[in-house]
């Protein structure tokens, strides 16, 4: 008989994993059943549309965006912010987003002002207000970022500064692309260019100035004789930077030389004079829509001919 004081040996088997707790209302069910707020559902739909936006799918997705359910000023504000964020962080698609905004300004609804003497709330007004706020905020942060670099800031601060700089340059390019679609925005571009060039610490803005002139410099020169004379002053200022600031980064010096050569060669790249100029975004989109319509017509004609041939064969003689 075993001693009562002896400890019995128990074999411990593998511990089963804890069971997953099943939610009373699954997340997908919440989305499908429409339990999310209406505004959140609309913004999710718009975000999904923007993620799929391409030149080939433009007209289909534009129609879906217009019909997404923008019924309040708050939703219009959220949709505009989504489009702006996508445009400034994806410079490759900036012309496409600018063309989209030009058309949405016609099709999206407008709303009465919040104040009795206020202006009507429209898509384009909200968009330009966001562009202005972003530009003014970037100017305040540009000096801080440069000071951080000189004083040896942390990696996180430098990464944040680079991200803000990228957003600022994307904003300037987006405004320039908007000016190609709407002539009224060209006045805003002139004001931005004047502000960037006439600042005391102009070397900080060299990249932004070169980007702006590379995007719409030709349009500014051709808009009026007065605008061309004003541009002469700006280009002389860029030339002076090469001699006044010899400590300027090599990358920025090459940017200035490239933009000077481009204008001197009548806005044709001197390195590739025979290169075919890029088509405007509307010249790319509209022919595609015409081709699709012709394709649908031809398909319908082929279908009609096929039906006629079938009926001819099976019809009794």
Number of helices: 12
Structural class: mainly alpha
Overall, the morphology is: globular
Cα-atom radius of gyration:
30 Å
The number of distinct β-strands equals 0
Contiguous runs where pLDDT drops below 50 for at least 5 residues: none
Q: On the 0-100 scale, what is the average pLDDT? A: 81
Task: Give the biggest beta sheet.
Answer: none
Q: What is the H/E order?
A: HHHHHHHHHHHH
Q: Level of helix content? A: 55-70%
Q: Cα distance, first to last residue?
A: 107 Å
Strand content: under 5%
Question: Can you tag this structure with a few keywords?
Answer:
68% helix; 12 helices; 317 residues; mainly alpha
SSE map:
Elements lengths: L26 H6 L5 H14 L6 H9 L6 H17 L4 H14 L15 H29 L3 H27 L3 H14 L7 H18 L1 H20 L5 H15 L16 H34 L3
Helix pairs in contact: 2-3, 2-4, 4-5, 4-6, 4-7, 5-7, 6-7, 7-8, 7-9, 8-9, 9-10, 9-11, 10-11
Give your account of this protein's structure.
With 317 residues, the chain is mainly alpha-helical. It has twelve helices and no strands. Helix 2 packs antiparallel against helix 3, helix 2 packs parallel to helix 4 and helix 4 packs antiparallel against helix 5. The radius of gyration is 30 Å and the shape is globular. It starts with 26 loop residues before the first helix and ends with a helix. The mean pLDDT is 81.
């Amino acid at each position: 008989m075993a001693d009562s004081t002896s400890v019995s040996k128990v074999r411990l088997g593998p511990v089963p994993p804890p069971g997953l707790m099943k939610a009373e209302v699954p997340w997908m069910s919440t989305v499908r059943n429409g339990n999310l707020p209406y505004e959140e559902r609309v913004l999710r739909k718009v975000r999904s549309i923007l993620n799929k936006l391409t030149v080939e799918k433009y007209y289909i997705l534009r129609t879906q965006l217009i019909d997404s359910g923008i019924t309040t000023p708050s939703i219009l504000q959220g949709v505009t912010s989504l489009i702006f964020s996508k445009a400034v962080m994806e410079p490759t698609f900036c012309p496409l987003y600018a063309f989209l905004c030009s058309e949405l300004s016609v099709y999206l609804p407008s709303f009465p002002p919040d104040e009795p003497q206020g202006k009507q709330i429209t898509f384009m007004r909200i968009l330009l207000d966001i562009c202005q706020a972003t530009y003014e905020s970037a100017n305040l942060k540009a000096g801080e970022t440069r000071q951080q670099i000189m004083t040896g800031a942390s990696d996180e601060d430098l990464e944040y500064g680079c991200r803000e700089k990228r957003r600022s340059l994307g904003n300037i390019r987006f405004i320039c692309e908007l000016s190609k679609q709407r002539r009224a925005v060209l006045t805003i571009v002139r004001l931005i260019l004047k502000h960037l060039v006439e600042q005391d610490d102009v070397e900080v803005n060299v990249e932004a100035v070169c980007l702006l002139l590379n995007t719409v410099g030709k349009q500014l020169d051709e808009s009026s004789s007065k605008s061309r004379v004003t541009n002469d002053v700006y280009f002389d200022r860029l030339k002076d930077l090469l001699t006044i600031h010899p400590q300027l980064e090599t990358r920025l010096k090459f940017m200035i030389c490239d933009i000077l050569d481009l204008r001197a060669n009548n806005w044709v790249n001197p390195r590739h004079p025979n290169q075919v100029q890029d088509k405007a975004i509307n010249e790319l989109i509209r022919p595609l829509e015409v081709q699709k319509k012709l394709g649908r017509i031809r398909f319908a004609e082929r279908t009609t001919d096929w039906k006629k041939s079938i009926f001819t064969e099976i019809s009794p003689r």
